[in-house]
UniProtKB/TrEMBL annotation:
Cofactor(s) annotated in UniProt: NAD(+)
GO molecular function terms attached to this record: UDP-glucose 4-epimerase activity
Gene: galE
Subunit structure as annotated in this protein's UniProt entry: Homodimer.
Identification of the protein by name: UDP-glucose 4-epimerase
GO biological process, one term: galactose metabolic process
Length: 338
């Protein structure tokens, strides 16, 4: 079974991808510094799979220790790189933290991969590279724009680095998955989104409010140029997203993959914040308090994906609905309270 190194593999998307890799016959090797995840996630993964997954507590900006992982594990067939900070608001307040971790971490990983002749990389990118798009839905040909936050800019810079490496004659083959808004949890409720401190993302804030851990949800901005005035996003179930990474690894295993490819990963359907609130109440029969507030720095009014390329070339399509995603998020929140 091929070994796939998964940086940030104990994180939200990483942990679900580790499960799907095993289900697809791969052997994932987790690398995580646990700066934004908890080691108990490893127990959830083990319970789902009925086996432990190897994990190295390593920071991707540390070349020496990262090299030790490659040496110890031996024949690594490919890497999925999740390890990055991702809070838009925090990146506005602490840009250097984001450039160091998200950009320097990728450069270090690429150098270690090159030294060990590992040539397959799936990169965790983001729809934030599109900035505020002029036309919706966005395709992979939609021009990338000046990022609306330092976080978004790190993803844009990372893609530029990968594109430059691809055109340099390097043997590296990369697929960048530009994904939209991951939500939901594994059907077992053994792993899910586990934000440390106050959540920066909508759905965990909803579930924590519904569970009584937060006084109320604030809907940031109700005066955007959208049907109900609140921001619109493309919410994709994390298990669907995890399966997209498996599809990308399989594509890289083909004899002559392109040096650098990008794919949107979303549902192709936009939902507003207020629609998500109503869908949660419908899916769970659990009303909760929310209020409106001013716009938040760094937020894009509306963005959702055209998923034609992923469907036709990657052979990937989402299968889980918004209501299913929200119901699984609530089951995960309830499991956390036990």
């Amino acid at each position: 079974m091929s070994k796939i190194l998964v940086t940030g593999g104990a994180g939200y998307i990483g942990s679900h991808t580790v499960v799907e890799l095993v289900n697809a016959g791969y052997t994932p090797i987790i690398v995580d510094n646990f700066s934004n995840s908890e080691e108990r996630v490893l127990n959830g993964i083990a319970q789902i799979l009925g086996q432990q997954v190897v994990c190295h507590k390593v920071d991707c900006t540390d070349a020496k220790v990262l090299q030790e992982v490659f040496t110890k594990e031996g024949d690594i067939a490919g890497v999925i790189h999740f390890a990055a900070f991702k809070a838009v608001g925090e990146s506005v307040a602490e840009p250097l933290k984001y450039y160091h971790n998200n950009v320097a971490g990728l450069v270090t990983l690429l150098q270690v991969m090159e030294a060990n002749k590992v040539t397959r990389l799936v990169f965790s990118s983001s729809c934030t590279v599109y900035g505020i798009p002029e036309k919706l839905p966005v395709t992979e040909e939609t021009p990338t724009q000046k990022a609306n936050s330092p976080y978004g800019n790190t993803k844009k810079i990372d893609e530029e680095i990968l594109r430059d490496v691809a055109t340099s004659g390097s043997a590296l083959r990369t697929i960048a998955l530009r994904y939209f808004n991951p939500i939901g949890a594994h059907e077992s409720a053994l792993i899910g989104e586990l934000p440390l401190g106050v959540p920066n993302n909508l759905v965990p804030f909803i579930t924590q409010t519904a569970a009584g851990l937060r006084d109320s949800l604030t809907v940031y901005g109700t005066d955007y140029d959208t049907p109900d005035g609140s921001c619109i996003r493309d919410y994709v179930h994390v298990v669907d997203l995890a399966k997209a990474h498996v599809a990308a690894i399989k594509r890289l295993e083909k004899e002559e993959p392109a040096a650098f490819e990008v794919f949107n990963v979303g549902t192709g359907q936009g939902s507003s914040v207020l629609e998500v609130v109503k869908a949660f109440e419908k899916a769970t029969s659990k009303p909760f308090p929310y209020k409106t507030g001013p716009r938040r720095a760094g937020d894009v009014p509306a963005i959702y994906a055209d998923v034609t390329k992923a469907t036709e070339e990657l052979g990937f399509k989402t299968s889980l609905s918004l209501e299913e995603s929200l119901a699984s998020s609530w089951a995960w929140q309830q499991a956390l309270g036990k």
